[in-house]
Amino acid sequence: MSTLSHDIDGADNAPGVFAAVDIGASSGRVMLGRVSPESGVSLETVHRFPNGVVEIDGGLRWNFDALFAEVLAGLRTAATVAAGQGERIASIGIDTWAVDYGLVDAGGNLAAQPFSYRDDRSRAAVEPVHRTLDPERLYATTGLQFLQFNTIYQLATEPDLGGLQALLIPDLIAFLLTGARRTEATNASTTGLFDAVAGEWATEFMAALGLRKDLFPPLIQPGEAYGALLPAMAEEVGLPSGTLVVAVGSHDTASAVAAVPADTNGDGGDFAYVSSGTWSLVGLELLHPVLTEASREANFTNERGVDGTIRYLRNIGGLWLLSECQRTWASEGFQPDLTALLAAAAALPSGGPQINADDPYFIAPDNMPERIRAAVRRTGEVLPNDPAAITRCIMDSLAAGYARTLADAERLADRSVGVVHVVGGGSQNALLCQLTADATRRPVIAGPVEATALGNVLVQARAAGAVTGGLPELRRIIAAGASLRRYEPAGFPVTASQN
């Protein structure tokens, strides 16, 4: 395992509290993390804000200007809260979703609001890219799962990149805060332009596609510092100008997997994880990528994790399906309580219709209940236009997808899994966790909910010297403070452990 940089050691920089900027595709928050090797990590949310795609200039984009304004507002609040409690913010870490980027010019100006991966523009670029770079060759080097919105295809749609540099979303935020242009490695590994074995940019692919080798800035590893806040930014948020922005697992799944409270000795084998939120990321943690043709055909990805690990996973559908259904129902005047809706879904008999939850058909926002019912009709079955029935279909479909993915991962990586850890928002969904235990025939350990922020904070804390050790030691710290629930297969939730 690699050793984290200790850029923020020193008597004048004794570890304090850590600010985690954690932004997902539908919401973001700024949190303060306090770390104790004995009692775990405590999180305090100081600022929440909505996020989502908007129609700008004929495409689905992120309103990055508004997003960055919320980040600054959150950091201002974090500084005020910490100061009010006699604490000092030791550093700031940023994680977001993957693949999307902003283009900046030599003066640091954003050329346009960044496109969202949910925009369909990259679909037409897939075939031209594959005519230049054979998919087998791409996979043998990058190990990246094929998704039509991967960065490599998005870049192929750009009309003119002359003089511009691409910064992935967390790196773009860090650049505006510090002035440093870097690309954090866990997110770089999602671009389709990263060598999975060498851990470096696949510059031969950039050249083949007519992209400059310096289109992306140099790589930075989790635990290394981008740099200190620019004076204007420090004044804006009320923090000392020496406050460092530290690279974490900036792909939110990398931070979440780092916080999986796994004990392989106690669990009886390797563990699988499901990072369950808007998307579901289902896979294993490995030391080396799996670059076989069978792995490519199964559409598994090999992305970097903290400490140079490999997140061997498949990206499948997630709770986006349910949240989009809720949005549609609300627009029709029906706003069911989520707890009651899930209880009604749980009361329905098993064996109902299912959909392929990771079908690209469900990527874009639209009337999700009707799209789900249409997908069921195409299988020859009928799904009632009833929120409980549609919700149960989503939950059954996700659990079945998790089980298929786990079985494929075990076979392709030659691993045997003893337990499944579900982290993120989906860990609160008792129906989904129980169905996952039943479908995988493995115990499911649910929690922590805030795995991404916990992983973000712990990487910062280790860089500061507040904690030491590798991922097993970090995970023991997580487990010490986490509230976890265990679900046994083919039964009901039987244990709730408060650590």
Automatic annotation (TrEMBL):
A GO molecular function annotation here is:
ATP binding
GO annotation (BP), single: rhamnose catabolic process
UniProt keyword annotation of GTP-binding present: no
Which residue numbers delimit the Carbohydrate kinase FGGY N-terminal domain?
A: 20-257
Q: Name one GO cellular component term.
A: cytosol
Q: Which InterPro entries match?
A: ATPase_NBD, FGGY_C, FGGY_N, Rhamnulokinase
Top-level taxon of origin: Bacteria
Q: Which residues form the Carbohydrate kinase FGGY C-terminal domain?
A: 272-464
Question: Which Pfam families does this one have?
Answer: FGGY_C, FGGY_N
SUPFAM superfamilies recorded for this chain? Actin-like ATPase domain
Q: Which UniProt keywords apply?
A: ATP-binding, Disulfide bond, Kinase, Nucleotide-binding, Rhamnose metabolism, Transferase
Q: Member of which family? A: Belongs to the FGGY kinase family.
Q: What is this protein called?
A: Carbohydrate kinase FGGY
Which species is listed as the source? Answer: Pseudarthrobacter chlorophenolicus (strain ATCC 700700 / DSM 12829 / CIP 107037 / JCM 12360 / KCTC 9906 / NCIMB 13794 / A6) (Arthrobacter chlorophenolicus)
